[in-house]
Amino acid sequence: MVREIFAEALLPPPKETISEWADKYRVLPSKGSAEPGRWRTSKTPYLKEIMDVMSPMDETKEVVFMKATQIGGTEVGNNVIFYYMDYYPSPMLQILHTEGIAKNHMKDKLIPSIKAMDRLNKKVTWAKSNQGGTTRTEIQFKGASLKLGWAQTPSTFASMSRRIVICDDIDRWKDDVGSEGNPVALAKRRANAFRNKKIFINSSPTQKGDSLIEEEFNETDQRHYYVPCPQCGEYVRFEKEDFVYEYDEERGELTSDVKFCCPKCGSLIDESQKMGMLQKGKWIPHNPKSSKKGYRLPAFYSPWFTWQEAFGEYVKALKKEKEGKPEFMKTWVNTIEALPYENRLEVTELSIEIDDLLQRREKYPAEVPDGVLVLTAGVDTQDNRFEIEVVGWGEGLESWSIEYAIIPGDPANKETQEALDLFLKKRFAYEGGGEIGIYAVCVDTQGHKTQSMYEFCKKRFLKKIFAIKGSNKQDTPITTGRFSLSNKGKVPLFHIGVNAAKDEIYSALEVDTPGTLYCHFPNRETYDEEYFKQLLAEKRINGVWKKRGRKRNEAIDCRVYARAALAIAGVDVDELAKRDKILKFSKKETKKRRLLSKGIG
Fold this sequence. Notes:
Blueprint: H1 2-10, H2 18-25, E1 27-28, E2 37-38, H3 48-52, E3 62-67, H4 73-86, E4 92-96, H5 99-116, H6 118-121, E5 138-141, E6 144-150, E7 164-168, H7 183-189, E8 198-203, H8 212-218, E9 223-228, E10 235-236, E11 243-244, E12 247-248, E13 253-254, E14 259-261, E15 268-269, H9 274-279, E16 282-285, E17 293-297, H10 307-322, H11 327-335, E18 347-348, H12 354-360, E19 374-381, E20 385-393, E21 399-408, H13 414-424, E22 427-429, E23 435-437, E24 440-444, H14 450-459, E25 465-471, E26 483-484, E27 493-497, H15 498-510, E28 519-520, H16 529-535, E29 538-541, E30 544-547, H17 554-568, H18 573-585, H19 590-593
Parallel strand pairs: 3-8, 3-17, 4-6, 4-7, 7-8, 9-17, 19-24, 21-28, 24-25, 25-27
Antiparallel strand pairs: 1-2, 5-6, 9-10, 9-16, 11-14, 12-13, 14-15, 18-29, 19-20, 20-21, 22-23, 26-27, 29-30
C-alpha cells in the first residue's frame, strides 16, 4: 500500500483540462443539485472555456464572470476546487458573502460533492475527535487545504497566501472591509506570492456605476457567447432586443410564444432549437486588446430557464415599473439579463450657476453673523495639504461660510498637523460682541495619509475631532451616530453618507431667499470663482453625485464634512434656536447666549 502511494506521488499529473476532469469524475450530489448525478459539460457548453482557462496549462491568471442566475455558474468554482484538490494540490481560498453562506456552502455543496466522489473522499483528512482535520470552514486534503472565508471580516484577507482564489457573488460584498480598502483587491493580493496563481471572480451585477463585477468586467476582453443561426449560419448572441413576443400591457402577461429573431437574416427561431445552437457556440471578445479574460452570460442561454419564463417575468416587471416599483425591473436586469441596472431619466443637473453664487456673496457685519448658533469644520486631506472650511449653522439649517483655508505641507508631518491644530483652536468674533470656537470637526482619513490621520484623530476624539470615511451608496444616511473600531489604528471611525449630504447641500444651494437651508457666503478673496467651481463640480447620475469631469472638488467635500460634523456631534440647531430666543427675550448679554461657543480645547 505504501509503495502504491509513493509510486502515485511520483507520477506527473494528467494533462486534462478542468472540463475534461469534470466529465470524467465530477458527481453532483442529490443534496442541493437540480440534476444530481454525473456532470456533463455538454449540458452547459458555454462553461467549457471558462473552466478550461482556469486549468494550469493555460497562462490566464485571472477570470471574471458576470453572469445571470440559473446558468450553472456556481459549479465552475466548485469544479476548479475539486480539480486542483485532485491533480494539483494547492493552497486555496474561496470567499463568499457572509459567514452563514460560507458555512452552508461547505455543508450543502462542497462536502456532499466530495463524499460523492470516492477518489476525492480518500484524499480529504476528515476530523476525528481532537486530532484535527476538516472543519466547518476548512477542508484539509493531501498536500494542501481549502479555506473558506467571508467578505465581511478583515481576517479573511490577512496573512494568507493562496495559489487559487475564488471570489463568489462579489456585488453582495461590502465596498470596504474594516477600512482596509476594496475587498476584491484585497482578495487578489492573497495570490500575489504565486507566479502560477489563478483567480476566479464571479457575480450577478447590481447598480450601474456601483457594481464591483461591472468594474472588473470592464477591465477584461469582454467575451460574449455567440451561437450559429440555424437558418443563415451567421453567429449571433442572445440579447433582449432580439426576442419577439406579444403581451397584455395592462395585465403584464404574455399572450404568445417567445421566439428569437436572428438579427442577420430575420428568421424566427423556436426555443426547441436552442440546445443545438449552444453546442456550436463560441466566445468572442469585444475588447481584444485587454490581456484579462472576462465573460458575460445572460439567462437566455440556460437549459433550465425558458425564454417563456424569462420574458414572462420581464412583462410583469414592466407593469410594476410603470406603477412606480422599479425594483422588479432591477432584479430582472441583474439576474436575467446579467447587466447592471441603470435608473431611467436619473441625471440631475443643478440649475444654480457659478455667477449666481458669486453675486450672492455679502459683507458680514462681523466674522460670525448673529444668526449662527454653532460652528463646525470639514477637513479634506490631500497629499500635500489640508483644505478646511468653517461653517456656521443656524435655525432651519441656514448656513454661513465663515472661512476657507489651505494649510500646505505633508499631512503626515508633525509641523503640518500642528498648523491644523492651531487653526482648529481659532476663535471668531461674533456680531454684537463675544467669540465662538469650532464645536466639532470631521477629518477625511481615506485615500491620502490614512494611518497618519487615524493617529491624529484618535488623540483628539474627546475634542470632537472625528475621523470619517465616506460612502457613496444611495441609502447611506449622513450618519448613524455610531463609529467602528475595525481598522488598523482602532480609531473611532464614522462612516458618512456622502451622497445624502450632497443631496441636502445641493438642494440648499438652490434656495434663493435667506431663511431655512439658505447658504450665505462672505465677500472674501478665498470665496472666488475657483471655490464655486469646486462647490458645483458634481452632477447626480443614477442617484449618485459624481464629478462633472474636472478633477478639483475639495470645496464640496469640505462642506460635506462640516455638515457631517454637525450630525455626528448630535447638534439640533432648531432646539438651540428655541433656547437662544428665550435668552434673547430675557435680555442676557450676547456672549452669554452662545450655547455652543467654547470650541476645540
